[in-house]
Design goal:
By secondary structure, the protein is an alpha/beta fold. The protein has 13 helices and 10 strands. The protein is globular, with a radius of gyration of 23 Å. The termini are far apart.
């Protein structure tokens, strides 16, 4: 079955670029989002997020009649779910958005449809989504029931793009394709090849889910090492930047740069999904999260110490000291503040400092 009509559920930082990429290949794309403002903005040929090059692609796709947005799912040949998957207060994954998205498309599913979950999810989420769909559509068969003979194919295909470079990496990067069956994987690969120039690497859905979590956990652990080094060096009176520069002269050492913490909806969130499912085994991953989550508090303490030094060296009062915070997003040239350590640092400073806090 060819893919004439493609529906993307969730028109945020990943969903809208994905919808635009398909539409740029002159496929009929229906974007679905519960945010009426986002829907209206897109239908005017404009965008509600900041992402270089995206605006022009959306404008041309809408004007060409290949992309439209709505708040209600409609019948399509393929559905891609790209909704948020935050964690709860106890760091357990919150699958409510995925469940709501799956149940919203269930009434309009038809035989031969393909459903792809792109949202970063815990292992087993794709199978769980298939269960929700099967529960609402007993007239159709799904991979967990009929294997390769299923009426509806289901796969997990995580994104791996850099904010600020999404429209390049979405097309150039390889994609991991995790179907619930080989047929599911083959159909998902065929869908992405509509715009993808990178390679489609096929596996099963559980491995694909774990792959995305592993990629970001690996990065989080490496960042935590650099951040922990900065804490140690501060205690020892050592310049951490010089230390890392010297250590990296070793041919097999590549220490990252320390910072104020870890931000974004991927690296700061995904490791907790592994920890939640494997609390006894994921000790290093948990510790890395704790190190990185603790770094903003250390930064605030450093600012407090700097203010105290300023007051001791001058005749100023605390209310006369201005503190400037440069940058709030976790990456350059984006407007995404999710999990940004800089935001928490600025808010904390504003709460305790009696003078001006400039952001």
């Amino acid at each position: 079955m060819s893919f004439t009509t493609i529906s993307v559920i969730g028109l945020g930082y990943i969903g809208l670029p994905t919808a635009a990429a398909f539409a740029s290949r002159q496929k009929q794309v229906i974007g679905v989002d519960i945010n009426q403002h986002a829907v209206d903005t897109i239908n005017r040929g404009e965008i509600h997020i900041v992402e270089p090059a995206l605006g022009n692609v959306v404008k041309m796709a809408v004007e060409g009649g290949f992309l439209r947005a709505t708040t209600t799912p409609v019948e399509a040949d393929a559905y891609l779910i790209a909704v948020p998957t935050p964690f709860k207060g106890d760091h357990d994954p919150d699958m409510a958005y995925v469940e709501a998205a799956a149940k919203s498309i269930a009434p309009v599913l038809k035989k031969g449809a393909l459903v792809i979950l792109e949202s970063t999810s815990p292992v087993g989420a794709t199978e769980q989504m298939a269960g929700w769909l099967a529960g609402m559509r007993p007239d159709l068969t799904f991979p967990q029931q009929a294997g390769e003979q299923a009426d509806v194919n289901i796969a997990y295909c995580p994104e791996r793009v850099l904010p600020g470079q999404v429209m390049v990496e979405l097309i150039k990067n390889d994609r991991v394709i995790g179907g619930m069956t080989p047929v599911c994987s083959a159909r998902a690969s065929a869908l992405y090849k509509i715009f993808l120039e990178g390679e489609c690497v096929v596996t099963n859905s559980r491995t694909a889910e774990m792959c995305k979590l592993t990629e970001n956990s690996f990065r989080d652990v490496n960042i935590a090492f650099a951040n922990e080094l900065s804490l140690i060096c501060a205690e020892q009176g050592i310049n951490v930047w010089e230390l890392i520069r010297l250590a990296n002269r070793h041919p097999r050492v590549n220490i990252l740069q320390p910072g104020p913490g870890v931000g974004g909806h991927c690296i700061a969130v995904d490791p907790w999904f592994i920890v939640a499912q494997n609390p006894q085994q994921a000790r290093l991953i948990r510790t890395a999260r704790e190190v990185n989550d603790g770094k903003p508090h250390w930064v605030v303490d450093q600012v407090k110490a700097a203010v105290a030094d300023c007051l001791a060296a001058t005749d100023k009062r605390a209310s006369e000291v201005k503190i400037a915070c440069f940058g709030l997003a976790f990456k350059p040239n984006i407007d995404d503040l999710r999990e940004s350590p800089a935001m928490g640092i600025a808010q904390s400073i504003a709460r305790w400092h009696s003078g001006e806090t400039l952001v």
